[in-house]
Amino acid sequence: MPKTTPELPQVARYKPYYHELEMGKTYLWCSCGLSQQQPFCDGSHQGTGFEPVRYAAKEPHQEVLFCGCKHSADKPFCDGAHNDLKADYDEDDPNSPENLAIPIVAAGADGRALLNGGCYVSKVERIPLQEHGNLRLGPVISATTGALYQSQFYAEVGSGESPVTHFGDRHTIALVTQGRGQITISGRVFPISPHMGVYVRPGEAFSINNPDTLAINLFLAVCPQAEQAEFLPQMPTGFETDYPERTVGVDPEQRQTMADRFFQILVDKCIGSNVVTQFIGDVPKSKAAMHRHLYEESIVILKGSGFMWTEDLKTPVATGDVIFLPRKQIHSLECTDPDGMMLAGVIYPGDNPAINY
Ligand code: FES
What we know:
Elements: E1 17-20, E2 26-29, E3 53-56, E4 63-66, H1 97-100, E5 112-114, E6 120-122, E7 130-132, E8 135-141, E9 151-157, E10 160-161, E11 164-166, E12 171-178, E13 181-185, E14 188-192, E15 197-200, E16 205-210, E17 216-223, E18 230-232, E19 247-248, E20 256-258, E21 261-265, E22 277-283, E23 286-287, E24 296-303, E25 306-309, E26 314-317, E27 322-325, E28 332-335, E29 341-348
Antiparallel strand pairs: 1-4, 2-3, 5-6, 6-27, 7-8, 8-9, 9-17, 10-16, 11-16, 11-18, 12-15, 12-17, 13-14, 13-16, 15-19, 20-21, 21-22, 22-29, 23-28, 24-27, 24-29, 25-26, 25-28
Bound molecules: FE2/S2 (inorganic) cluster.
Residues 15-16, 67-69, 71-72, 78-82 line the site of FE2/S2 (inorganic) cluster.
């Protein structure tokens, strides 16, 4: 029997255990890592100094990820700490005979390459954009294309002030991919520049001022999902002053490691977005082992190229593409670029992009 100490639990496995909990039932999560009935306690902790953690379901059919590595700071749940217990992220060989046999899917007439389980990669340049003054706007992810939680729009803003745009009582999280200017959010003005995340609270509206001839391009994630934007005759007041910070730029000091990968949270609860999280990250040339998440995710490829894999299909991805990933869909995003891949994602509902299973 392996030994453990109160300072050092045994790793049962380097990823969490998915469970759907029964309402009214109490679960005893193994904290020492020695139980033979993972992730639950079988009494093996006796004499180790560890005690099991008790948890009762908070809602019917509550889905949880119980920590398997026993190093989470959010016990009994996974907080992504398992990614940092090894120097390398778990990888898979894209050139294995099984992987080479997986067919490559091409994008259809609508610009989407359809993978398993409703996952797809969208060639954004093929999305039809509608003109509203100097704003060109089109849906990339929506209920029509299978999303349950979030929608995403691609926007190009020409010179001048865009129409006042409103997504009702929803959170809007923007990612600027090109251009510099200002965004006005319900009367409050903020400078914007590439790779900046912007948060617009439910009920607020926004417009974008482009002082240049180069378009300002953005992706707009809207949660819960909206089929279309509303355009208001004038900018409303009512900026929520309890949340004064609304833009977050890339800051190397804020980068978090995930084995050999990096990510930085842009928009999250730190600036008031409690249920939607936006991040930006770097992926080295590699193919991550297949894994899942409990949140629905949209990913914009900002730089680099590779393949998006699901269980028995794969498709190329390149700079500017958007990936839609349903909850619990098994997948891997491979980077084939020696210089690595840069991406930005929005997860909803969720607050930690490092949690995978
Ligand atoms: S399995 Fe322990 S933190 Fe994820």
